[in-house]
Fold:
Amino acid sequence: MVAEMVPERELQPRAFSIMPLVWSLGSIFGPSFGGFFAKPAENLPGLFGHNKFLIKFPFALPNIVASFLFLIGITTGFLYLRARNTSCPLSPLLTTTRKPWKPNVTAQIPVSSSGSN
Structure:
């Protein structure tokens, strides 16, 4: 997958060396963040002491935070990475150029026909 994401041969060694670095950082910080967010009603009673959901499920907050970070990663990948595999059945949907979103600034404001009072 890294070779597909970095097609330039001269940059592939750098990409392959960054991958274990990111994996190691995730292995260090992931459990640290999980431990920090575990049992928030007991460890941070000022913020979460009265939350009945977190009292009943003390390990829900680390999973919610991890799910949120996963959702950010999936959304970022879907929006900013291009599909290069043309044999994929979804490639026509993923490789189309998206038009930038423009707000509708020509909204009509109703004006009363009668004059001011």
The chain has seven helices and no strands. The radius of gyration is 24 Å. The chain has a mean pLDDT of 79.
